[in-house]
Amino acid sequence: MTTTPPCQPGFDRRYDVQGLDAIDVAVLDTFAYVRQDDPAAYPGEPMDIEIITDEFSPVCPWSGLPDFGRLEIRYQPREKCVELKSLKYYLTSYRFVGIYHEHATRRLLADLTRLLDPLSMTIRCDYGMRGGLNTVCTVRYVAPDQAGGTAK
After folding, report:
1. Which residues are designated catalytic?
2. Alpha-carbon distances of 111 from 4, 46, 117, rounded to whole Å
3. Which end of the chain has less Cβ packing within 10 Å, N or C?
4. Which stretch of DSSP H or E encloses residue 137?
5. pLDDT in tens for each of the 152 residues of the chain?
Protein backbone atom coordinates (compact mmCIF):
# COMPACT_ATOMS: atom_id res chain seq x y z
CA MET A 1 0.00 0.00 0.00
CA THR A 2 1.37 3.39 -1.06
CA THR A 3 0.66 6.36 1.10
CA THR A 4 0.79 9.93 -0.05
CA PRO A 5 2.64 12.17 2.34
CA PRO A 6 0.44 14.85 3.82
CA CYS A 7 0.61 18.22 2.12
CA GLN A 8 2.69 20.62 4.15
CA PRO A 9 0.59 23.50 5.50
CA GLY A 10 1.15 26.59 3.43
CA PHE A 11 2.50 24.92 0.27
CA ASP A 12 -0.81 25.46 -1.47
CA ARG A 13 -1.06 29.05 -0.28
CA ARG A 14 -1.53 31.78 -2.83
CA TYR A 15 -1.89 35.49 -2.18
CA ASP A 16 -4.47 37.48 -4.05
CA VAL A 17 -3.13 39.82 -6.69
CA GLN A 18 -4.58 42.88 -8.33
CA GLY A 19 -5.10 43.30 -12.06
CA LEU A 20 -3.51 45.76 -14.46
CA ASP A 21 -6.20 48.32 -13.71
CA ALA A 22 -4.53 48.89 -10.32
CA ILE A 23 -1.54 50.53 -12.06
CA ASP A 24 -2.12 54.21 -11.32
CA VAL A 25 -1.14 55.98 -14.53
CA ALA A 26 -3.29 59.00 -13.63
CA VAL A 27 -0.95 59.92 -10.76
CA LEU A 28 1.94 60.65 -13.15
CA ASP A 29 2.81 64.32 -13.57
CA THR A 30 5.33 66.30 -15.60
CA PHE A 31 7.10 69.63 -15.64
CA ALA A 32 8.65 71.61 -18.50
CA TYR A 33 12.09 70.51 -19.66
CA VAL A 34 13.13 74.15 -20.20
CA ARG A 35 12.13 76.88 -17.78
CA GLN A 36 10.52 79.75 -19.64
CA ASP A 37 11.87 82.28 -17.12
CA ASP A 38 15.51 81.20 -17.52
CA PRO A 39 17.32 83.14 -20.28
CA ALA A 40 20.48 80.98 -20.05
CA ALA A 41 21.27 78.92 -23.11
CA TYR A 42 22.31 75.41 -22.14
CA PRO A 43 25.10 73.93 -24.25
CA GLY A 44 25.37 70.23 -24.94
CA GLU A 45 21.73 69.34 -25.37
CA PRO A 46 19.98 66.96 -25.35
CA MET A 47 20.19 66.06 -21.67
CA ASP A 48 20.27 62.45 -20.53
CA ILE A 49 18.14 61.82 -17.45
CA GLU A 50 18.62 58.67 -15.36
CA ILE A 51 16.29 57.60 -12.59
CA ILE A 52 17.30 54.53 -10.60
CA THR A 53 15.58 52.72 -7.74
CA ASP A 54 16.00 49.41 -5.97
CA GLU A 55 12.39 49.57 -4.75
CA PHE A 56 10.38 48.37 -7.75
CA SER A 57 8.28 45.45 -6.57
CA PRO A 58 5.39 44.03 -8.57
CA VAL A 59 4.20 40.56 -7.56
CA CYS A 60 4.31 37.14 -9.17
CA PRO A 61 1.00 36.48 -10.96
CA TRP A 62 1.09 32.84 -9.79
CA SER A 63 1.98 33.07 -6.12
CA GLY A 64 1.33 36.71 -5.29
CA LEU A 65 4.78 36.87 -3.71
CA PRO A 66 6.78 40.06 -4.30
CA ASP A 67 9.46 40.33 -6.96
CA PHE A 68 12.08 42.96 -6.18
CA GLY A 69 13.84 44.73 -9.01
CA ARG A 70 16.44 47.38 -9.62
CA LEU A 71 14.73 49.70 -12.08
CA GLU A 72 16.70 52.05 -14.32
CA ILE A 73 14.90 54.63 -16.47
CA ARG A 74 17.01 56.60 -18.95
CA TYR A 75 15.55 59.16 -21.32
CA GLN A 76 16.20 62.23 -23.40
CA PRO A 77 13.31 64.64 -22.89
CA ARG A 78 11.66 66.52 -25.70
CA GLU A 79 9.50 69.04 -23.81
CA LYS A 80 8.59 67.35 -20.51
CA CYS A 81 10.27 65.62 -17.58
CA VAL A 82 8.57 63.22 -15.21
CA GLU A 83 7.97 64.60 -11.72
CA LEU A 84 9.68 62.24 -9.27
CA LYS A 85 7.09 62.15 -6.48
CA SER A 86 4.40 61.21 -8.98
CA LEU A 87 6.72 58.56 -10.47
CA LYS A 88 7.25 57.07 -7.00
CA TYR A 89 3.47 56.82 -6.47
CA TYR A 90 3.07 55.27 -9.92
CA LEU A 91 5.79 52.67 -9.24
CA THR A 92 4.28 51.92 -5.83
CA SER A 93 0.94 51.16 -7.49
CA TYR A 94 2.57 48.02 -8.93
CA ARG A 95 3.03 46.69 -5.39
CA PHE A 96 0.10 44.23 -5.55
CA VAL A 97 -0.24 43.84 -9.32
CA GLY A 98 0.33 40.30 -10.58
CA ILE A 99 2.47 40.78 -13.67
CA TYR A 100 5.36 38.96 -15.32
CA HIS A 101 8.75 40.70 -15.36
CA GLU A 102 8.70 41.09 -19.12
CA HIS A 103 5.20 42.57 -19.16
CA ALA A 104 5.95 44.99 -16.31
CA THR A 105 9.02 46.34 -18.09
CA ARG A 106 7.11 46.84 -21.35
CA ARG A 107 4.19 48.46 -19.52
CA LEU A 108 6.53 50.96 -17.85
CA LEU A 109 7.92 51.95 -21.25
CA ALA A 110 4.45 52.28 -22.78
CA ASP A 111 3.11 54.46 -19.96
CA LEU A 112 6.17 56.72 -19.73
CA THR A 113 6.60 57.27 -23.47
CA ARG A 114 2.90 58.11 -23.74
CA LEU A 115 3.28 60.60 -20.88
CA LEU A 116 6.54 62.25 -21.94
CA ASP A 117 6.89 61.86 -25.71
CA PRO A 118 10.68 61.65 -25.22
CA LEU A 119 13.32 61.68 -27.94
CA SER A 120 14.42 58.29 -26.63
CA MET A 121 13.96 56.10 -23.58
CA THR A 122 15.46 52.90 -22.22
CA ILE A 123 14.06 50.98 -19.28
CA ARG A 124 16.07 48.21 -17.67
CA CYS A 125 14.95 46.14 -14.73
CA ASP A 126 17.13 43.56 -13.00
CA TYR A 127 14.72 41.38 -11.06
CA GLY A 128 17.49 39.53 -9.25
CA MET A 129 18.14 35.89 -8.58
CA ARG A 130 15.15 33.60 -8.19
CA GLY A 131 15.39 29.84 -8.28
CA GLY A 132 18.93 30.09 -9.60
CA LEU A 133 17.87 32.29 -12.54
CA ASN A 134 18.39 36.02 -12.91
CA THR A 135 16.00 37.96 -15.13
CA VAL A 136 17.06 41.28 -16.65
CA CYS A 137 14.61 42.96 -19.03
CA THR A 138 15.55 45.93 -21.22
CA VAL A 139 13.22 47.80 -23.55
CA ARG A 140 14.05 50.75 -25.79
CA TYR A 141 12.14 53.46 -27.56
CA VAL A 142 13.34 55.97 -30.13
CA ALA A 143 10.85 58.56 -31.34
CA PRO A 144 9.92 58.10 -35.01
CA ASP A 145 11.36 61.52 -35.89
CA GLN A 146 14.67 60.48 -34.27
CA ALA A 147 14.96 56.97 -35.72
CA GLY A 148 17.11 58.01 -38.69
CA GLY A 149 20.05 59.08 -36.53
CA THR A 150 20.95 59.91 -33.00
CA ALA A 151 18.37 61.62 -30.84
CA LYS A 152 18.78 65.38 -30.71
Report:
1. 60, 67
2. 49, 22, 10
3. N
4. strand 133-142
5. 666 656 676 666 667 789 999 999 999 999 999 888 887 777 777 899 999 999 999 998 888 888 899 999 999 999 999 999 999 999 999 999 999 999 999 999 999 999 999 999 999 999 988 778 899 999 999 999 998 755 44
**Binding site as annotated, residues for substrate:** 82-84, 101-102
Nearest Cα to Cα of residue 87 among 115, 64, 127: 115
- Taking the domains of the chain in order of start, what are their residue ranges? 23-36+55-146
